[in-house]
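2024-03-11 09:14:02 DEBUG pipeline.ingest accepted 1 chain
2024-03-11 09:14:02 DEBUG pipeline.ingest length=226
2024-03-11 09:14:03 DEBUG pipeline.predict start
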Amino acid sequence: MSSCASPEVFTDIMVDPFVRGRLHRPVRGNGDGMVLTHGASGNCNAALLVALAEAFCGAGFTVLRCDLPYRQDRPYGPPGPHDGKRDRAGLRNALSAMKSLARGRLFISGQSYGGRQASIVCAEQTEGSASVAAGLMLLSYPLHPPGKPDQLRTQHLFDLHTPTLFVEGTRDPFGSIAEIEQAMKLIPGKTRLLTVDGVGHDLGFKGKSWRDDLPATVLAEFQKFF
C-alpha cells in the first residue's frame, strides 16, 4: 500500500466552469486517477468522499475531490433545475485537469446527484470518441425521488457503455436493491453491484460517526471489478 500526502487545495481557473477541490497525491502512485464529487446537499468535504479519497490514495490513486459548479456558486442548498448541464461541464473540465496529473487510467465517481451527473457525462460520449473515463463508480445512485418510484432517472442508462460499479445501501429510499438491479439491466456496458447492509442513502456516513470498514470494502470491490 502507498502512503498519501496531505490533500492540497486545487484550482484551475483557466477553464469555464473552473475546477475547485482537494487533491490527494500518493507518495508512490500507480498512475491511475479519480475524480470524486458530492451529492446535492454536500460539497467536496463530505465525510464519505474524504474517507474514500484517503483509501484510494493509499492504494496509489491520485484523487481529486471536486465541488460541482453549482456548489462553487452557492455554499448551501441543492442544485437548481437548470444546473445539470453546467455541472457536467465542470466534471469534464475536472477530468481534463486530471489527465496531466495521472498518466494511467482515469475514473470518475460521485455520490447521489454527483454520480448521476457523472453517469450522464459518460453516456453523452459521441460514438467513436475516446472514452472520458475508464470506469464509473456510482455511490447511492438516486434512481427516483423517495416515494416516487414512477419517476425513474434511467433515460441515459441505455447509452452508458462505461464499466460501472454501483455502491448501494439496502435501506436507500432513492431506490431499492431490486430496483437498482432492474435499472442495471438497461446498461449496455459492464456493471457490478456492491450492497451495503443496513444503511440508507448516506451509506452509513452521517454526522460524526460512520462505518470504518466501508472505504476498504469499496476499494477492494473496485480493484476486483476494474
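2024-03-11 09:14:41 DEBUG pipeline.report The mean pLDDT is 93.
2024-03-11 09:14:41 DEBUG pipeline.predict end
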